[in-house]
Amino acid sequence: MRDYESIVRKTDEQIEECFLHRGVRMVRNDATISFSNMTFEVPQEYIRKYITVKYNPHNLEKLYIYSDKNERLHTIKAVDKIANSKVKRQQNISLYRERGQ
C-alpha cells in the first residue's frame, strides 16, 4: 500500500490502444487500401508504400496508420461510395493542340 501513490492509471483510450489488432497493407495508386472488404482513403503521401494499420476488430469505422516507431500518424475512414459518386469532377484537359491552332 505504500507504493499506491506511485501507480499511474492509464486513460481508457490508452488501454484500448494496447488491444488494437495490427495489419500491413499496400496503398494503391488511387490512395486507397482494401481492408475487410471495405475501401479506406489514405493520404496521398503513402501511394505505392506499405503501411501499418491498427484497428478494433469490433468497430471498423476507422483505422489508424502507425509509424515504424509505433506512433499514431493518421486516422483513416472508409470511403462513402454514395457521397463520393456525387462529387463534381473537373473535366479532363487535353494536352494536345487541336489542328489549325
Short recap of the structure:
With 101 residues, this protein is mainly β.
Structural account:
This protein has 101 residues and is mainly beta. The chain has one domain (11-81): OB fold (Dihydrolipoamide Acetyltransferase, E2P), CATH 2.40.50. Helix content is 12%, strand content 35%. It is built from two helices and six strands. It has helices at 12-18, 81-85; strands at 21-26, 32-35, 38-41, 50-56, 59-66, 72-77. The strands form two sheets. It has a four-stranded antiparallel β-sheet with strand order 1-4-5-6, with no helix packed on it. The longest helix has 7 residues, at 12-18. It is elongated, with a radius of gyration of 21 Å. It starts with 11 loop residues before the first helix and ends in a 16-residue tail after the last helix.
List the helices and strands and how they pair.
Blueprint: H1 12-18, E1 21-26, E2 32-35, E3 38-41, E4 50-56, E5 59-66, E6 72-77, H2 81-85
Antiparallel strand pairs: 1-4, 2-3, 4-5, 5-6
Number of helices: 2
The largest β sheet comes out as: 4 strands, antiparallel
Strand content: 25-35%
**Rg, nearest Å:** 21 Å
- Strands of the widest sheet, in order across it, are 1-4-5-6
Helix-strand category: mainly beta
Shape-level CATH architecture: Beta Barrel
